C-alpha cells in the first residue's frame, strides 16, 4: 500500500513520484487499449512513437529548448557520455578544458585522455571538493574544443549556482540536477544526464545538443557512438529503451503538474533547507561537507563530529525507516539525496529525526 512507501534518500536510482508509479501500474498490462504493455509494443508503432515524441516535446517546453538544439535519447548511462563527447568532438592534437569538481568530472577527464589532450582548467580537489571554483578562477582556453563541467556533484554535495559564459561550447553533466531548476539552455553546447535521479528509471540517457556541434563532429567513429546517428533518426535508429522513455514522459507530465521548473526549484529549496538547518543549528554536532555557497539542493552531505555516534546515527536512522543515508563508498559519512520526487514530508521527517537524535546524545 502507499503508506508503506519508504523514506527514500537514495542517490540513484532514487525515488520516483508515487503518482507516476501508480499510472505505470494501471497501464502496465494494457497500454492505451492496445492489449499490450508499453514494453511489448513495436518501437515503430504509432502508440510508441506518440509516447516518444511527446516526451521530447515536453522536455523542450519545460526547458524552453531553442530550435537550434536537438533532444535525443541514448543508452549507456552518463558514463558512456564521458567517452562519446571526446570521441565526437576532440581531435588527437586538440585541447578541451575540464573543470574538476569531483569524482564524476575526474572520470570524464580520464576518458578524454584516450582521444586528445584535455587540460584541467580548474580543480577544487586540494580543498576536498568542498566548493565549486569561482568563475574568475577558471583558466579557460578560447580555442578549446569544449569546456566540460559537472553541474551537481552527487558524491560531495556541491552544485554550480551560475555558469560561465564560455567561448568554447560548454558541455555539462547534469545527471544529478537536471530538471531541478530553470536554466538558460543557450549557455550550453551539450547537456547530458543519466535518467535515474530526476528523470525516471535507469536505462535512458538524455542529451540536448546544439546543432552546429554536429557539423564539427568526427566522422570516423562507430555508428552507435555518433550523436548524428541519433539526431538524424529521431533517436529511433535502433531499438530505444522504450519503457524508460515512457517513464520519462510520465515524469515530465508530473513536473508540469507541479507547476514547472520554477515551482520545482522553490520546492527543492524548501526541502533542502529543512536538512541544512538541522546541520547549521546543531552547534557542530552535524558538520556539512560542502562550503555553504556551493551547497547542493540535491545531495546533502554531512558527518557527525563524533565517529562512533555517526555509526549509531546511521544504524538508528535505518531502524527508523530512512533509506540510503550512507555517504558514497568513496567518501563515507552521511548523504541525503533530496531529488525532485522526494516529498517535503520525507525531508521534514529526516530533519526531525536529526534534531531528536542530537537531543538524545
Ligand atoms: N555523473 C554524475 C554526476 C552522476 O551522479 C553519475 C551517477 O550516478 C554518473 C555521472 C554516472 O551515471 P551512469 O551510472 O548513468 O553512467
Automatic annotation (TrEMBL):
Its EC number is 2.6.1.52. Pyridoxal 5'-phosphate binds at residues 78-79, 104, 154, 173, 196, 238-239. Signal peptide: none annotated. GO terms for cellular component: cytoplasm. Pathway: Amino-acid biosynthesis; L-serine biosynthesis; L-serine from 3-phospho-D-glycerate: step 2/3. Keywords: Amino-acid biosynthesis, Aminotransferase, Cytoplasm, Pyridoxal phosphate, Serine biosynthesis, Transferase. Binds 1 pyridoxal phosphate per subunit. The modification N6-(pyridoxal phosphate)lysine is found at residue 197. It catalyses: O-phospho-L-serine + 2-oxoglutarate = 3-phosphooxypyruvate + L-glutamate; 4-(phosphooxy)-L-threonine + 2-oxoglutarate = (R)-3-hydroxy-2-oxo-4-phosphooxybutanoate + L-glutamate. One of its GO terms (molecular function) is O-phospho-L-serine:2-oxoglutarate aminotransferase activity. L-glutamate binds at residue 44. Belongs to the class-V pyridoxal-phosphate-dependent aminotransferase family. SerC subfamily. HAMAP family: SerC_aminotrans_5. This is Phosphoserine aminotransferase.
Amino acid at each position: 500500500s502507499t503508506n508503506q512507501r519508504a523514506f527514500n534518500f537514495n542517490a540513484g536510482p532514487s525515488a520516483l513520484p508515487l503518482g507516476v508509479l501508480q499510472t505505470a501500474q494501471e497501464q502496465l498490462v494494457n497500454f492505451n487499449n492496445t492489449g499490450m504493455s508499453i514494453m511489448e509494443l513495436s518501437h515503430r508503432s504509432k502508440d510508441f512513437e506518440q509516447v516518444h515524441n511527446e516526451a521530447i516535446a515536453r522536455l523542450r517546453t519545460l526547458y524552453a529548448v531553442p530550435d537550434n538544439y536537438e533532444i535525443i535519447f541514448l543508452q549507456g548511462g552518463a558514463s558512456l557520455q564521458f567517452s562519446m563527447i571526446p570521441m565526437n568532438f576532440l581531435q588527437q592534437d586538440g585541447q578541451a578544458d575540464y573543470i574538476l569538481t569531483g569524482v564524476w568530472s575526474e572520470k570524464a577527464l580520464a576518458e578524454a585522455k584516450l582521444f586528445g589532450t584535455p587540460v584541467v582548467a580548474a580543480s577544487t580537489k586540494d580543498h576536498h571538493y568542498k566548493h565549486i571554483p569561482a568563475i574568475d578562477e577558471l583558466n579557460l582556453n578560447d580555442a578549446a574544443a569544449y569546456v566540460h563541467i559537472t553541474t551537481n556533484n552527487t558524491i560531495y554535495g556541491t552544485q554550480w549556482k551560475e555558469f560561465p559564459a564560455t567561448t568554447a561550447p560548454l558541455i555539462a553533466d547534469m545527471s544529478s540536477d537536471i530538471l531541478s531548476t530553470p536554466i538558460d539552455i543557450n549557455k550550453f553546447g551539450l547537456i547530458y544526464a543519466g535518467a535515474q535521479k530526476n528523470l525516471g528509471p535507469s536505462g535512458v540517457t538524455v542529451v540536448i545538443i546544439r546543432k552546429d556541434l554536429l557539423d564539427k563532429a568526427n566522422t570516423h567513429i562507430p555508428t552507435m557512438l555518433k550523436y548524428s546517428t541519433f539526431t538524424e533518426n529521431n533517436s529511433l535508429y535502433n531499438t530505444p529503451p522504450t519503457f524508460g522513455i515512457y517513464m520519462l514522459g510520465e515524469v515530465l507530465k508530473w513536473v508540469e503538474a507541479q507547476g514547472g521548473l520554477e515551482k520545482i526549484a522553490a520546492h527543492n529549496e524548501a526541502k533542502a533547507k529543512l536538512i541544512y538547518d538541522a546541520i547549521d543549528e546543531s552547534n557542530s554536532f552535524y558538520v556539512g561537507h560542502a562550503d555553504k555557497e556551493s551547497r547542493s539542493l540535491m545531495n546533502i552531505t554531512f558527518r557527525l563530529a563524533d565517529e562512533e555516534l555517526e555509526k549509531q546515527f546511521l544504524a538508528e536512522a535505518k531502524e527508523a525507516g530512512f533509506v540510503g543515508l550512507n555517504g558514497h563508498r568513496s567518501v563515507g559519512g552521511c548523504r541525503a539525496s533530496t531529488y525532485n520526487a522526494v516529498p517535503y514530508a520525507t525531508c521534514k521527517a529526516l530533519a526531525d529525526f536529526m534534531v531528536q537524535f542530537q537531543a538524545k546524545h
